Amino acid sequence: MTTADSGAARAPGVSAATFKRVERAAGGLATRSVALMDERLPWFRVLPAQQRSWVTLVAQAGIAGYVVWATTPGPEYRITGEVFGNAPRDLVRAVSLRRTVELVRIAITVAEDQLPALAVDAAESVALRDSLLRYSREVAFAAAAVYAAAAETRGAWDARVEAGVVDGVVRGEDIGALSSRAAALDWDPSADTIVVAGTAPPGDRAEAVAAVAEWAAAAGRAAMAGVQGDRLVLVLSGSGPPGAGVEALFGDGPVVQGRPGGGLRGAVISAADALSGLDVAAGWPDAPRPVEADDLLAERVLGGDLRAAERLRTVIYGPLATAPTSLLPTLDAYLESGGALEPAARRLFVHPNTVRYRLRRITELTGRDPTEPRDLLILQTAVILGRLSSAASTA
Protein backbone atom coordinates (compact mmCIF):
# COMPACT_ATOMS: atom_id res chain seq x y z
CA MET A 1 0.00 0.00 0.00
CA THR A 2 1.48 3.37 -1.02
CA THR A 3 1.40 6.51 1.11
CA ALA A 4 -1.11 8.09 -1.21
CA ASP A 5 -3.30 5.00 -1.09
CA SER A 6 -3.20 4.85 2.71
CA GLY A 7 -4.38 8.42 2.91
CA ALA A 8 -7.12 7.99 0.34
CA ALA A 9 -9.85 7.80 2.98
CA ARG A 10 -9.02 11.24 4.36
CA ALA A 11 -7.42 12.99 1.38
CA PRO A 12 -8.48 11.23 -1.85
CA GLY A 13 -6.79 12.63 -4.91
CA VAL A 14 -3.67 13.93 -3.13
CA SER A 15 -0.39 12.32 -4.15
CA ALA A 16 2.45 11.17 -1.95
CA ALA A 17 4.75 13.69 -3.66
CA THR A 18 2.44 16.54 -2.65
CA PHE A 19 2.35 15.32 0.94
CA LYS A 20 6.16 15.41 1.00
CA ARG A 21 6.16 19.01 -0.26
CA VAL A 22 3.66 19.87 2.48
CA GLU A 23 5.95 18.32 5.10
CA ARG A 24 8.92 20.34 3.86
CA ALA A 25 6.87 23.54 3.92
CA ALA A 26 5.69 23.09 7.53
CA GLY A 27 8.45 25.17 9.12
CA GLY A 28 7.97 28.13 6.81
CA LEU A 29 4.19 28.01 7.17
CA ALA A 30 4.50 27.98 10.96
CA THR A 31 6.76 31.03 10.82
CA ARG A 32 4.29 32.80 8.52
CA SER A 33 1.41 31.86 10.84
CA VAL A 34 3.15 33.30 13.90
CA ALA A 35 3.98 36.49 12.01
CA LEU A 36 0.31 36.87 11.06
CA MET A 37 -0.74 36.21 14.66
CA ASP A 38 1.63 38.96 15.76
CA GLU A 39 0.12 41.29 13.18
CA ARG A 40 -3.56 40.63 13.86
CA LEU A 41 -3.73 39.77 17.59
CA PRO A 42 -2.66 42.53 20.01
CA TRP A 43 -2.75 40.15 22.99
CA PHE A 44 -0.38 37.76 21.22
CA ARG A 45 2.24 40.47 20.75
CA VAL A 46 2.60 40.94 24.49
CA LEU A 47 3.00 37.25 25.35
CA PRO A 48 6.35 36.33 26.94
CA ALA A 49 8.94 34.96 24.51
CA GLN A 50 8.70 31.45 25.96
CA GLN A 51 4.94 31.27 25.41
CA ARG A 52 5.32 32.60 21.86
CA SER A 53 7.83 29.84 21.16
CA TRP A 54 5.35 27.28 22.47
CA VAL A 55 2.72 28.61 20.06
CA THR A 56 5.24 28.32 17.21
CA LEU A 57 5.90 24.68 18.11
CA VAL A 58 2.18 23.92 18.22
CA ALA A 59 1.61 25.65 14.87
CA GLN A 60 4.46 23.70 13.27
CA ALA A 61 3.20 20.44 14.77
CA GLY A 62 -0.29 21.25 13.52
CA ILE A 63 0.86 21.64 9.92
CA ALA A 64 3.12 18.59 10.06
CA GLY A 65 0.31 16.70 11.78
CA TYR A 66 -1.90 17.27 8.76
CA VAL A 67 0.27 14.95 6.69
CA VAL A 68 0.18 12.23 9.36
CA TRP A 69 -3.59 12.64 9.73
CA ALA A 70 -4.18 12.47 5.99
CA THR A 71 -1.94 9.43 5.41
CA THR A 72 -2.87 7.35 8.48
CA PRO A 73 -5.70 4.89 7.82
CA GLY A 74 -8.43 4.23 10.35
CA PRO A 75 -9.49 6.20 13.43
CA GLU A 76 -6.43 5.50 15.56
CA TYR A 77 -4.57 8.74 14.85
CA ARG A 78 -4.90 11.13 17.80
CA ILE A 79 -4.63 14.79 16.86
CA THR A 80 -4.52 15.81 20.53
CA GLY A 81 -1.23 14.05 21.16
CA GLU A 82 0.44 14.90 17.86
CA VAL A 83 -0.51 18.57 17.69
CA PHE A 84 -0.83 19.65 21.33
CA GLY A 85 1.52 17.14 22.93
CA ASN A 86 4.48 19.55 22.72
CA ALA A 87 2.64 22.31 24.57
CA PRO A 88 3.19 22.43 28.33
CA ARG A 89 0.24 22.74 30.68
CA ASP A 90 1.25 26.32 31.43
CA LEU A 91 0.26 27.28 27.89
CA VAL A 92 -3.31 26.12 28.51
CA ARG A 93 -3.47 28.37 31.57
CA ALA A 94 -1.84 31.31 29.79
CA VAL A 95 -3.93 31.19 26.57
CA SER A 96 -7.70 30.79 26.88
CA LEU A 97 -9.77 28.51 24.67
CA ARG A 98 -11.24 31.51 22.82
CA ARG A 99 -7.76 32.79 22.04
CA THR A 100 -6.60 29.33 21.02
CA VAL A 101 -9.43 29.25 18.47
CA GLU A 102 -8.15 32.57 17.12
CA LEU A 103 -4.65 31.11 16.78
CA VAL A 104 -5.93 27.95 15.08
CA ARG A 105 -8.03 30.02 12.67
CA ILE A 106 -5.01 32.04 11.58
CA ALA A 107 -2.82 28.93 11.17
CA ILE A 108 -5.48 27.20 9.09
CA THR A 109 -5.99 30.35 6.99
CA VAL A 110 -2.28 30.41 6.16
CA ALA A 111 -2.35 26.69 5.32
CA GLU A 112 -5.38 27.12 3.05
CA ASP A 113 -3.69 30.02 1.27
CA GLN A 114 -0.29 28.39 0.81
CA LEU A 115 -0.68 24.61 0.62
CA PRO A 116 -3.00 24.24 -2.40
CA ALA A 117 -0.27 25.86 -4.50
CA LEU A 118 1.92 22.82 -3.78
CA ALA A 119 -0.47 20.52 -5.68
CA VAL A 120 0.48 19.22 -9.12
CA ASP A 121 -2.77 20.29 -10.77
CA ALA A 122 -6.11 22.03 -10.16
CA ALA A 123 -7.95 18.83 -9.21
CA GLU A 124 -5.38 17.94 -6.58
CA SER A 125 -5.48 21.51 -5.29
CA VAL A 126 -9.23 21.19 -4.69
CA ALA A 127 -8.74 17.83 -2.97
CA LEU A 128 -6.02 19.28 -0.77
CA ARG A 129 -8.17 22.25 0.22
CA ASP A 130 -11.11 19.98 1.04
CA SER A 131 -9.01 17.73 3.28
CA LEU A 132 -7.58 20.79 5.05
CA LEU A 133 -11.09 21.94 5.92
CA ARG A 134 -11.86 18.57 7.49
CA TYR A 135 -8.52 18.56 9.31
CA SER A 136 -9.16 22.05 10.73
CA ARG A 137 -12.42 20.78 12.18
CA GLU A 138 -10.58 17.89 13.83
CA VAL A 139 -7.99 20.29 15.25
CA ALA A 140 -10.76 22.46 16.71
CA PHE A 141 -12.31 19.42 18.41
CA ALA A 142 -8.90 18.39 19.71
CA ALA A 143 -8.28 21.86 21.15
CA ALA A 144 -11.65 21.75 22.91
CA ALA A 145 -10.74 18.34 24.36
CA VAL A 146 -7.44 19.69 25.69
CA TYR A 147 -9.16 22.56 27.45
CA ALA A 148 -11.94 20.33 28.75
CA ALA A 149 -9.36 17.99 30.28
CA ALA A 150 -7.51 20.94 31.79
CA ALA A 151 -10.75 22.32 33.21
CA GLU A 152 -11.62 18.93 34.69
CA THR A 153 -8.21 18.66 36.32
CA ARG A 154 -8.42 22.21 37.62
CA GLY A 155 -11.94 21.56 38.89
CA ALA A 156 -10.86 18.47 40.81
CA TRP A 157 -7.94 20.37 42.34
CA ASP A 158 -10.19 23.31 43.25
CA ALA A 159 -12.69 20.93 44.86
CA ARG A 160 -9.97 19.44 47.07
CA VAL A 161 -8.70 22.87 48.09
CA GLU A 162 -12.24 24.09 48.76
CA ALA A 163 -13.02 21.09 50.94
CA GLY A 164 -9.77 21.69 52.82
CA VAL A 165 -10.60 25.35 53.46
CA VAL A 166 -14.09 24.51 54.74
CA ASP A 167 -12.64 21.79 56.97
CA GLY A 168 -10.09 24.30 58.28
CA VAL A 169 -12.84 26.81 59.04
CA VAL A 170 -14.79 24.17 60.96
CA ARG A 171 -11.73 23.07 62.94
CA GLY A 172 -10.54 26.62 63.57
CA GLU A 173 -7.18 26.30 61.83
CA ASP A 174 -4.53 29.03 61.69
CA ILE A 175 -5.94 32.01 59.80
CA GLY A 176 -2.74 32.53 57.84
CA ALA A 177 -2.84 29.02 56.40
CA LEU A 178 -6.56 29.30 55.69
CA SER A 179 -6.11 32.62 53.91
CA SER A 180 -3.35 31.20 51.72
CA ARG A 181 -5.48 28.27 50.60
CA ALA A 182 -8.59 30.41 50.12
CA ALA A 183 -6.61 32.85 47.96
CA ALA A 184 -5.88 29.97 45.56
CA LEU A 185 -9.66 29.85 44.97
CA ASP A 186 -9.81 33.63 44.34
CA TRP A 187 -11.61 34.02 47.66
CA ASP A 188 -11.20 37.39 49.35
CA PRO A 189 -9.97 36.44 52.85
CA SER A 190 -11.01 39.85 54.23
CA ALA A 191 -14.61 39.67 52.96
CA ASP A 192 -17.49 39.35 55.41
CA THR A 193 -18.67 35.77 55.75
CA ILE A 194 -21.50 33.72 57.15
CA VAL A 195 -21.60 29.94 57.65
CA VAL A 196 -24.67 27.76 57.17
CA ALA A 197 -24.80 24.12 58.27
CA GLY A 198 -27.32 21.32 58.00
CA THR A 199 -27.76 17.69 57.04
CA ALA A 200 -26.12 16.80 53.73
CA PRO A 201 -28.55 15.75 50.99
CA PRO A 202 -28.61 12.07 50.04
CA GLY A 203 -26.42 11.01 47.15
CA ASP A 204 -22.95 11.85 45.92
CA ARG A 205 -20.91 14.44 47.84
CA ALA A 206 -19.61 16.02 44.65
CA GLU A 207 -23.16 16.58 43.45
CA ALA A 208 -24.07 18.33 46.71
CA VAL A 209 -21.08 20.68 46.38
CA ALA A 210 -21.87 21.28 42.68
CA ALA A 211 -25.44 22.23 43.60
CA VAL A 212 -24.07 24.82 46.01
CA ALA A 213 -21.89 26.29 43.25
CA GLU A 214 -24.88 26.55 40.91
CA TRP A 215 -27.02 28.18 43.59
CA ALA A 216 -24.26 30.64 44.49
CA ALA A 217 -23.73 31.61 40.85
CA ALA A 218 -27.46 32.28 40.46
CA ALA A 219 -27.52 34.26 43.70
CA GLY A 220 -24.42 36.25 42.73
CA ARG A 221 -22.63 35.22 45.88
CA ALA A 222 -19.24 33.59 46.44
CA ALA A 223 -19.49 30.28 48.27
CA MET A 224 -17.38 27.38 49.47
CA ALA A 225 -18.91 24.08 50.54
CA GLY A 226 -17.82 20.84 52.12
CA VAL A 227 -19.53 17.62 53.18
CA GLN A 228 -18.29 16.41 56.54
CA GLY A 229 -19.79 13.13 57.56
CA ASP A 230 -23.54 13.60 57.31
CA ARG A 231 -23.31 17.41 57.38
CA LEU A 232 -23.07 20.00 54.63
CA VAL A 233 -21.26 23.20 55.61
CA LEU A 234 -21.47 26.36 53.50
CA VAL A 235 -19.17 29.37 53.80
CA LEU A 236 -20.84 32.34 52.09
CA SER A 237 -19.44 35.76 51.34
CA GLY A 238 -21.30 38.81 52.61
CA SER A 239 -22.97 39.63 55.88
CA GLY A 240 -26.56 39.39 54.73
CA PRO A 241 -28.83 36.37 55.21
CA PRO A 242 -28.17 33.39 52.93
CA GLY A 243 -31.14 34.17 50.71
CA ALA A 244 -33.97 32.26 49.12
CA GLY A 245 -33.48 28.64 48.22
CA VAL A 246 -30.51 27.89 50.46
CA GLU A 247 -32.54 25.38 52.48
CA ALA A 248 -33.08 23.31 49.32
CA LEU A 249 -29.34 22.57 49.23
CA PHE A 250 -29.61 20.48 52.40
CA GLY A 251 -31.25 17.22 53.30
CA ASP A 252 -34.08 16.84 55.79
CA GLY A 253 -33.75 18.40 59.21
CA PRO A 254 -32.76 21.77 60.64
CA VAL A 255 -30.54 24.27 58.85
CA VAL A 256 -28.64 26.73 61.06
CA GLN A 257 -26.83 29.90 60.08
CA GLY A 258 -24.09 31.39 62.24
CA ARG A 259 -23.52 35.06 62.91
CA PRO A 260 -21.85 37.03 60.10
CA GLY A 261 -18.26 37.96 60.76
CA GLY A 262 -15.28 39.65 59.21
CA GLY A 263 -13.02 37.54 57.00
CA LEU A 264 -12.08 33.94 57.59
CA ARG A 265 -11.60 34.61 61.29
CA GLY A 266 -15.26 35.56 61.42
CA ALA A 267 -16.09 32.43 59.41
CA VAL A 268 -14.45 30.26 62.09
CA ILE A 269 -16.68 31.83 64.76
CA SER A 270 -19.75 31.64 62.54
CA ALA A 271 -19.09 27.95 61.86
CA ALA A 272 -18.75 27.21 65.58
CA ASP A 273 -22.08 28.94 66.20
CA ALA A 274 -23.85 27.19 63.34
CA LEU A 275 -22.63 23.72 64.27
CA SER A 276 -23.37 24.27 67.95
CA GLY A 277 -26.89 25.31 67.01
CA LEU A 278 -27.27 22.32 64.73
CA ASP A 279 -26.37 19.99 67.60
CA VAL A 280 -29.27 21.27 69.74
CA ALA A 281 -31.78 22.34 67.08
CA ALA A 282 -34.01 19.40 68.00
CA GLY A 283 -34.87 21.35 71.17
CA TRP A 284 -36.96 23.71 69.04
CA PRO A 285 -38.96 21.49 66.67
CA ASP A 286 -40.84 24.39 65.09
CA ALA A 287 -37.74 26.48 64.34
CA PRO A 288 -37.69 28.21 60.95
CA ARG A 289 -35.46 26.78 58.24
CA PRO A 290 -32.88 28.19 58.24
CA VAL A 291 -32.74 29.39 61.83
CA GLU A 292 -30.15 31.76 63.24
CA ALA A 293 -27.74 30.23 65.73
CA ASP A 294 -28.41 33.16 68.09
CA ASP A 295 -32.07 32.16 68.21
CA LEU A 296 -30.90 28.87 69.69
CA LEU A 297 -28.79 30.42 72.43
CA ALA A 298 -30.92 28.95 75.23
CA GLU A 299 -30.69 25.45 73.75
CA ARG A 300 -26.97 25.86 73.11
CA VAL A 301 -26.36 26.81 76.75
CA LEU A 302 -28.30 23.76 77.92
CA GLY A 303 -26.19 21.71 75.55
CA GLY A 304 -23.00 22.92 77.23
CA ASP A 305 -21.88 25.61 74.79
CA LEU A 306 -19.71 27.92 76.93
CA ARG A 307 -19.39 30.47 74.14
CA ALA A 308 -23.16 30.78 73.97
CA ALA A 309 -23.31 31.34 77.72
CA GLU A 310 -20.67 34.05 77.50
CA ARG A 311 -22.54 35.72 74.65
CA LEU A 312 -25.75 35.83 76.69
CA ARG A 313 -23.93 37.35 79.65
CA THR A 314 -22.14 39.92 77.51
CA VAL A 315 -24.73 40.92 74.94
CA ILE A 316 -27.93 40.67 76.99
CA TYR A 317 -27.33 40.59 80.74
CA GLY A 318 -24.55 43.18 80.72
CA PRO A 319 -26.57 45.97 79.03
CA LEU A 320 -29.60 45.25 81.24
CA ALA A 321 -27.57 45.24 84.45
CA THR A 322 -25.90 48.57 83.66
CA ALA A 323 -28.97 50.34 82.27
CA PRO A 324 -29.85 53.58 84.13
CA THR A 325 -33.54 52.66 84.37
CA SER A 326 -34.95 49.68 86.29
CA LEU A 327 -34.95 47.25 83.39
CA LEU A 328 -33.92 44.11 85.27
CA PRO A 329 -36.61 44.48 87.96
CA THR A 330 -39.14 45.16 85.21
CA LEU A 331 -38.11 42.00 83.37
CA ASP A 332 -38.27 40.03 86.64
CA ALA A 333 -41.80 41.28 87.32
CA TYR A 334 -42.85 40.55 83.75
CA LEU A 335 -41.53 36.99 84.03
CA GLU A 336 -43.14 36.42 87.41
CA SER A 337 -46.46 37.63 86.00
CA GLY A 338 -46.29 35.09 83.18
CA GLY A 339 -45.75 37.77 80.57
CA ALA A 340 -48.85 39.74 81.58
CA LEU A 341 -48.50 43.52 81.44
CA GLU A 342 -50.90 44.80 84.10
CA PRO A 343 -49.93 42.31 86.85
CA ALA A 344 -46.30 43.26 86.22
CA ALA A 345 -47.21 46.94 86.60
CA ARG A 346 -48.96 46.26 89.91
CA ARG A 347 -45.90 44.39 91.21
CA LEU A 348 -43.75 47.40 90.35
CA PHE A 349 -46.32 50.01 91.52
CA VAL A 350 -46.11 51.77 88.16
CA HIS A 351 -48.46 52.49 85.29
CA PRO A 352 -48.74 49.79 82.56
CA ASN A 353 -47.44 52.33 80.04
CA THR A 354 -44.25 52.56 82.08
CA VAL A 355 -43.85 48.80 81.81
CA ARG A 356 -44.46 49.05 78.04
CA TYR A 357 -41.78 51.71 77.75
CA ARG A 358 -39.27 49.65 79.72
CA LEU A 359 -39.99 46.55 77.64
CA ARG A 360 -39.32 48.59 74.50
CA ARG A 361 -36.03 49.75 76.05
CA ILE A 362 -35.10 46.11 76.70
CA THR A 363 -35.75 45.35 73.04
CA GLU A 364 -33.63 48.31 71.93
CA LEU A 365 -30.72 47.32 74.17
CA THR A 366 -30.68 43.57 73.55
CA GLY A 367 -32.43 43.01 70.24
CA ARG A 368 -34.84 40.68 72.06
CA ASP A 369 -38.52 41.48 72.44
CA PRO A 370 -39.89 40.30 75.82
CA THR A 371 -43.38 40.05 74.31
CA GLU A 372 -42.14 37.27 72.00
CA PRO A 373 -42.01 33.86 73.78
CA ARG A 374 -38.73 32.75 72.18
CA ASP A 375 -37.03 36.04 72.94
CA LEU A 376 -38.37 35.97 76.47
CA LEU A 377 -36.81 32.51 76.96
CA ILE A 378 -33.44 33.84 75.81
CA LEU A 379 -33.74 36.90 78.05
CA GLN A 380 -34.60 34.75 81.06
CA THR A 381 -31.66 32.41 80.37
CA ALA A 382 -29.31 35.39 80.06
CA VAL A 383 -30.47 36.86 83.38
CA ILE A 384 -30.00 33.54 85.17
CA LEU A 385 -26.50 33.10 83.73
CA GLY A 386 -25.55 36.68 84.51
CA ARG A 387 -26.63 36.47 88.10
CA LEU A 388 -24.93 33.14 88.62
CA SER A 389 -21.72 34.59 87.22
CA SER A 390 -21.97 37.67 89.43
CA ALA A 391 -22.60 35.54 92.52
CA ALA A 392 -19.62 33.32 91.71
CA SER A 393 -17.30 36.30 91.26
CA THR A 394 -18.26 37.79 94.65
CA ALA A 395 -18.12 34.52 96.55
Could you walk me through the main structural features you see in this protein, from its secondary elements to its overall organization?
With 395 residues, the chain is an alpha+beta fold. It has 3 domains: 3-150; 172-298, no CATH class; 306-394, Orthogonal Bundle (Arc Repressor Mutant, subunit A). 65% of the residues lie in helices and 7% in strands. It contains 17 helices and 6 strands. Strands 1, 2, 3, 4, 5 and 6 form a 6-stranded mixed beta sheet that branches. Helix 2 packs across helix 7 (97-114). The protein starts with a helix and ends with a helix. Mean pLDDT is 83; it is low at 1-8.
Provide tags for this entry.
395 residues; alpha+beta; Arc Repressor Mutant, subunit A; 3 domains; six-stranded mixed beta sheet; 6 strands; 65% helix; 7% strand; disordered N terminus
